[in-house]
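User: Predict the structure for this protein chain, please.
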Amino acid sequence: MQIPFYKYQGAGNDFVMLDCRDKMWIDRKDQSTIARLCDRRFGIGADGLILLRNHPDFDFEMIYFNADGAEGSMCGNGGRCIVAFAKDLGIIKDRCLFIAVDGPHEAGIRPNGWIDLQMQDVDQIEDLPEYSFLDTGSPHVVQFVEDLDRVQVHEKGKRIREDARFAPGGTNVNFVQPTQNETLRVATFERGVEAETLACGTGVTAVALVNHLRKHSPKGKYTQAIAAKGADLEVRFNYEGATKFSDIWLCGPAEKVFKGVFN
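Assistant: Here is the predicted structure, written as structure tokens:
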């Protein structure tokens, strides 16, 4: 069988995209095939695979799989990429509402090509001296460091990801270094990929919220600049006090890299 595919990337977070409106090219349980498609040596190569399907109540449905082939939790950069994919397919114009594993998401496309994706509200953050833990559609540890360049992201991230505190599902891990201009430099170890990725959408969202909480800033609307290794991103949000955040938007570039057929 030949599977037509598209490759997209958002801030260096890359995905295999399949248009499944007319035909379901991949069975949700076919973990080995999905892992092979994502393999960087024997397949196409990607941090994850995304199916775009029809849905009676939304513009489309997003189904996300990690690079290991297992169906995953919400992927923020993947969500931005599927919006770009839907526009390229002619399904949407500059606004849309789609459904993902964690619920509905609104999105918009700016004239410069940046895609703004609304994330789910957050009202629980476990803020400890050593790290913070929260769920922004996927679970994340946020740990502040003095020198990001000296952090062994894979080794340290893997240890935290597999720590018994986060069993059975594990967690994603983000290391953060604030800069003098208040931009946050971020490096992320992603579960499912089991490696460092160039960016993580739900991860930088978690970083922005935790950073704001630790600054003890007043209630109101804020914008946080993020420097991921793959590109600059932006997180907008409304802080309602305590650990409650609403109207959260993940913003940044997303684009098609190439398309092809996989045998």
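The mean pLDDT is 97.
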